Amino acid sequence: MSSSPHPIPRVAAIHDLSGFGRCALAVVIPALSALGIQVCPIPTAVLSTQTDGFENFTFRDLTDDVYPIFSHWSSLGISMDCIYSGFLGSFEQISIVRSIFEHSPGALRVVDPVMGDDGALYSTMSGEMGYRMRELCSMADVITPNLTECTYLLDRPYKAAPLAAGELHRHLKDLCALGAKIAVLTGAVLQDGMLVNCAFDSVHGTFSEARCPVLPKSYPGTGDLFTSVLTGLLVLGVPLEKALRHTTDYLAKTISLTIQMDTPVREGVALERTLPLLTGLAAPGSPLFLA
Prior knowledge:
Blueprint: E1 10-18, H1 25-34, E2 38-47, E3 59-61, H2 63-75, E4 82-85, H3 91-102, E5 108-111, E6 116-117, E7 120-121, H4 128-137, E8 142-143, H5 147-154, H6 165-177, E9 182-189, E10 194-201, E11 206-213, H7 222-235, H8 240-260, H9 275-282
Parallel strand pairs: 1-2, 1-4, 4-5, 5-8, 8-9
Antiparallel strand pairs: 2-3, 6-7, 9-10, 10-11
Helix pairs in contact: 1-7, 2-3, 3-4, 4-5, 7-8
């Protein structure tokens, strides 16, 4: 979707950092790096562990540091090809990311509105976050909510039952009506029992989707990994439909391997073993870039 003025594309990753548990920056940095992209992290918070499956974790809010990091880069003439935000630790950070968007002309703006899963908000979130997150989504080129986050953004009841294609299309169109150019809804289960990641491009009026079987386990951090791989492929110029399909395939392979390894769920997926797949995707001559 964009062509970088730098030999290696740069992505500013505005996410939290957990010391243990594969999520947020712990997966964003290796995934984008494996795709040949320079990751420039702006930590929003530092936690001792990720929050799913752990108790008594430490949480350090870094709101006061987010904009000064970006401002320092700007003073040095450092520009970004993409601004990619994920978990935000405070309401103030939403306004800060909006300001970063405003001061990054030409950059691809990706918002993963990290708020919750399985119909519930994460323990660090409040109901007001869904309303405030709309402000950020209105400025985005791409948003990637899961079904829980979608319902909070649209102020709709969460429906855990399998969905019809028409319901997904309505969600996607309404998400774009918030202002985003492209909405990607992740991890929905269809009535035929398949899992689907689907997208609506409001600029071209086109829907696309990628399906895979529902796997017997789910892991924290897979949403972060999905959006990171999708973002990287879009930054590299891969068309949305193709990027969606390859991202879905990569996640399915990584989750399947993690299940085979009997990795504890709260530790997240074993992406260390599948990063070479991403490197292969981005290699010169890869079929990914062929018409």
